[in-house]
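This part of the workshop introduces the protein records we will be handling. An example says more than a description, so a record of this kind follows:
>
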Amino acid sequence: MPTDTKRLPVPETSICPSTLIEDISAKKLPLISNNKRRDDRLCTQLRHVYAKLKVISQAQGSAYIEIGNTKVICSVYGPREVKKRDEFSMDGQLCCDFKFATFSCPQRRSHLSDNEEKELSQQLLNALSPAVCLNKFPKARVEIFALVLENDGSAFSAAINCASLALVDASIELYDIPVAACVRYDGVNLIVDPQLNEEYSHQESNLSEENGQVLVAYLPVLKQISALNHVGCLSSKVLNQSMKLCIEATQKMHTIFQECIKEKVKSIMD
């Protein structure tokens, strides 16, 4: 059989050997010890946030964000004219696509979208839709593509933040900038901006114990919640406290995003 010289002779699927090594010491360590987390953060402390606009020249708008070791890139295309009659609408349309890069997680992901990514794509649409002025581009569509390059926890909230900045870079009119944050409750402590080893897992959950995670997408200027995602088992009291911590975290990140947008505007003016 003829060989394809343009491709490397490697397996179609592969797993990094380091992911097969179990870190037994990490499993024995509690999430909180001496009021500090494993990365020496306090329970309510956010990771370092870095954001940059206009990172993809071919897109109408784009953004890149790092929250700790979690890295997400997002691109926005449009508004584009909707040609099919069955998709005609006097209001504009949003189409969101959320995807994990194959190398972004400890276990290699498929290059095809799975059920989790399809569900998160719909949740991304629900979080962004209330903030976009859809009546400003009738008979048109805006497409948003969010790609997680590295997942070290709170990847979906980072994707919402990155998509918001990409919409701003694309000059899409917004009522407000959606900002998202995540809080994990381990049964004792409320942990803001959890890392991958701190996130809620269905496999480790116990229905008899109170344990879960809350994500809030918030519009800081309008003071409205655009999306709420809750997994696990939480009482109404803990859920209320988690939402308050999420809102406080989004207000802190909103200030960072405002500075990022200001720097972008200044660079254009100069």
